[in-house]
Amino acid sequence: MSELRYEAPKTLAEAVALLSGAKGRARVLAGGTDLLIQMRTGRIQPELLVDIKAVPELGEIVAGNGGYRIGAAVTGMQLIEHADFAKRWPGVVDGVRLIGSLQVKGRATVGGNLCNASPAADSVPALIAAGAVARIVGPHGAREAAVETVVVGPGKTSLAVGEIVTSLLLPPRPLRSGDAYLRFTPRSEMDIAVVGAGVNLTLDAQGICTQARVALGAVASRALLVPAAAAALIGTKVDAAALARLAAAARDACSPIDDKRGSREFRLRTAGVMVCRAAGIALERARRNDG
Amino acid sequence: MARHHVRATVNGDAVEFLCETGQTLLEALRDELRLTGTKEGCGTGDCGACSVMLDGRLVCSCLVLGVEAEGRSIETIEGMAVGEALHPLQQKFLEHAALQCGICTPGILIAARALLERNPDPTEAEVRDGLAGNLCRCTGYHKIVEAVLAAAREMRGA
Ligand SMILES: Cc1cc2nc3c(=O)[nH]c(=O)nc-3n(C[C@H](O)[C@H](O)[C@H](O)COP(=O)(O)OP(=O)(O)OC[C@H]3O[C@@H](n4cnc5c(N)ncnc54)[C@H](O)[C@@H]3O)c2cc1C
Ligand code: FES
Ligand code: FES
Fold it and tell me: pTM, whole model, 2 decimals?
């Protein structure tokens, strides 16, 4: 039982070498808010934990080229407290705010929320809607992958052995852009999303939507980018007719489970409602964000 | 067996302890350092009974490994009173009868102090929000919220 090893390398190269050289199961340890519980319940029994929090560059939030780079060891609270980031990406911050309590967010990372690969992870639809890209480093070098391609199913990612998500890249933000993430839960705090909806859109000077991305969480085996839902908004003033088409496209994209937290029918209807509400908030934010 | 020799600062004092990789900071505090003021409710991050400050950040010590405390500064409930003088929050919890069984109390006091450091004049809603990660099965929260608001008033000198 106590063969579990712990390493806290100071460089990325060492972290990758440890993970890819491990004989048994090795795991990245970021905030540990999922991992420690999974170890405690015996769901996973790793032999090596590689704590990435001692690698300096993974702890940074960096603005550059009009966008943002969030290191994989940045905690939810650090992101929420970063005023400029919160102003540019309020929808991403909406998602992060929902990750557990203040205590949980004091440790939890966005990278961990993604790599834990829960279909209900709250920051993931918001990141997908934002067009975020994961930067990944592994034994065969570095690559970038759109966030929607990182998770492949419940608890499963497309990361190869030894690969680490080192940061999340947020693209430059045009004027008149806004994003929002909303989830439906039976309780207001400390609950798991039954449906999560992220909407990110950009308006032109006339208030016509020129770009949009829509993502849904908890309605399939992983968070989904829904291009048909975005298409319902593009070219419109995000009026009632556009919202009706948005809701229909969102419902069509869902293949939800049926459980005690919400029946299939309930999740389908709720997906339509939540995506319209998120679009309404994103629209308001885009209108206010005109320079 | 992977036993780690950890050096950290707890309530301002340099401490050293030995722990296994899988041991949580909560277990290290209670079982190795014998600081049993920090409580275990759930062990899964849900109840907040194990709340401590880690490098100035409110966290659940059941979700931190003991080894992760290496070189870090931890504040627990044992550091809240100064000698015999209770912290205003502790005093108000007594005056307002804001505790019954007391299991949640150390964690709530730590979370409440963290809240008042950020926001010395919170509204009732802000107090409830600041304590949303701390469950109490006994009091119904009302007296806890009153005690925190009363302590905030006193600490502001209002
Ligand atoms: C009480 C409680 C309430 C919660 N509520 C919510 C909620 O409402 N919504 C929500 O979405 N989540 C919630 N969570 C889940 C959890 O806090 C989040 O998923 C969190 O973001 C995980 O991040 P972490 O840094 O703690 O990950 P860890 O636990 O450190 O890691 C999670 C997994 O991802 C892997 N991993 C982590 N970082 C990387 C990386 N950079 N590269 C490769 N692999 C990596 C780890 O190996 C592990 O398998 C809750 C958890 C608790 C304890
Ligand atoms: S014991 Fe840590 S949150 Fe309950
Ligand atoms: S006083 Fe018993 S749990 Fe709060």
Answer: 0.96
